[in-house]
Amino acid sequence: MIKWSKNYLMGIDKLDEEHKELFRISDQIYNKVMERGDDAKYRLFLMNEALEYMLRYFKRHAKGEEIYMREIGYAAYEFHKMLHDEFYNMLLKKKADIVKRNECSKKEIAELVGDGIGWLLEHIITEDMAIVGKGISAISSYNSDFEEQLKNVINTNLISFLNVAANVKIINRNYQGEDFGKVICQKMVYNLGSRQIVVISGIEKTFLIRVAEMIYGIDIEDEMDLVLYSMQTFGANFWRAIGQYFVGNHDLLSLSSNSFIIARSIPEELDMLKPEKSLLFDSDMGKFFIATNGKMSEIAHF
């Protein structure tokens, strides 16, 4: 059900094979629970075994990838390692919660697999591709054509990694939270030296559903829990990558928090933020926005 694509290939055989295996494991877990999901004891056994195996495999994969980054002197190593640690700790916490309660629902399994696929897909096409000089996170320079460059980066990534010609364009350079449909929103807070930089973003749910159809290649209405968990996680992490592009890649930059926020609170959030940039985009896939209080010239030359 979960489709691997050659667009996710970094060009490093060992890492590419391991990424494929992580997708295969996730697919196998979900298919097994769909076969015997009504058996509570089997669900619990499956999740305990699957999480234990996934934790061991991901830890080994992350360690190998981190060794490679150090060997080539990759500048964003610390941030990339932090993302690995976040994912590992998320899996560890889910396992601990299941063990403590001694039960696991079908919805929890959809959440786990969905979160995992959403995280892996976004991580590969942004952070991992940046290791080999591709993807959003590989570009951090600021110039006078910042908005045009950002638009082109998003377009290029959608075409390269999702085979989507979305034709992204900026339609509002002073977005103040006007309603544009059902939106998944998140708020990211970064620390940069003594400054705090906030990035608020949102993407239309229809956009994420269309991406899901490309990833899973199925009639997604029958698997909506899995799809929504995948796309929420994908969306949050995709915008964190875009947020990195806004605030730059600095040794002193650290992500303090990343959380979903309700769409109706966006006008109030933006009013309090008083953003330096607040851009609304349209595309053939749907609308999305991103806003930040970071000053581009100050951040770029920090």
Mean pLDDT: 80
Low-confidence stretches: 140-144, 296-302
- Helix-strand sequence: HHHHHEEEHHEHEEH
In CATH, what is the class of the largest domain?
Alpha Beta
Overall description:
By secondary structure, this protein is of the alpha+beta class. It has 2 domains: 126 residues, Hemerythrin-like (Four Helix Bundle (Hemerythrin (Met), subunit A), Up-down Bundle); 134 residues, Chemotaxis protein chec, CATH 3.40.1550. Helices cover 57% and strands 15% of the residues. It has a 6-stranded antiparallel sheet, with helices on both faces. β2 and β3 form a beta hairpin. The radius of gyration is 19 Å and the shape is globular. It starts with 12 loop residues before the first helix and ends with a helix.
Could you give a short description of this structure?
By secondary structure, the protein is an alpha+beta fold. Helix content is 57%, strand content 15%.
List the helices and strands and how they pair.
Elements: H1 13-36, H2 40-71, H3 77-101, H4 106-131, H5 146-162, E1 169-172, E2 183-192, E3 195-204, H6 205-216, H7 224-247, E4 253-261, H8 266-273, E5 277-282, E6 288-292, H9 296-300
Antiparallel strand pairs: 1-5, 2-3, 2-4, 3-6, 5-6
